[in-house]
Write a structure and sequence with these properties.
By secondary structure, this protein is of the alpha+beta class. It has one domain. The protein contains 2 helices and 6 strands, in the order H-E-E-E-E-E-E-H. The chain has a 4-stranded antiparallel sheet with strand order 3-4-5-6. Strands 1-2 form a two-stranded antiparallel ribbon. A hairpin with a 2-residue loop joins strand 1 and strand 2. The longest helix has 12 residues. The N and C termini lie far apart (47 Å). InterPro entries: DUF397.
C-alpha cells in the first residue's frame, strides 16, 4: 500500500479546516481568516514570505504557495527571531 500525498485543496472541507488550525505548544491557531502581510520591500519576483499575527502566535508562509504549509511561532519565539535578525545573527559573511 502506498501513501498518496494530497494538497490541502484536494481534501474535504472539514479536513482542510483542521489543517488550517495547527496546534503549537497547546494553542490552536486558526489561520483561515488570518490577515497576511508581505514586506513593502519585496520585489515583483515573488520570492518572499508573508506573516500573520494570530492571537498569541505568528505564522509565516511562502507567498508563492498561500494554500501550502505555514510555520507557526509563539510570541517569544518570534521576538527572539526578530532580535537575532536585528543583531545580525543570520547575516552571511
Amino acid at each position: 500500500m502506498s501513501a498518496e500525498k494530497t494538497s490541502r485543496r484536494d481534501r474535504p472541507p472539514d479536513e482542510r479546516k483542521e489543517s488550517l488550525m495547527p496546534e503549537i505548544k497547546g494553542m490552536s491557531v486558526d489561520l483561515e481568516g488570518a490577515d497576511w502581510k508581505k514586506s513593502s520591500r519585496s520585489g515583483s519576483a515573488g520570492h518572499c514570505v508573508e506573516v500573520a499575527f494570530v492571537g498569541q502566535a505568528t505564522a509565516v508562509r511562502d507567498s508563492k504557495d498561500p494554500s501550502g504549509p505555514a510555520l507557526v511561532f509563539t510570541d517569544d519565539e518570534w521576538k527572539a527571531f526578530l532580535e537575532g535578525a536585528a543583531a545580525g545573527e543570520f547575516d552571511r559573511g
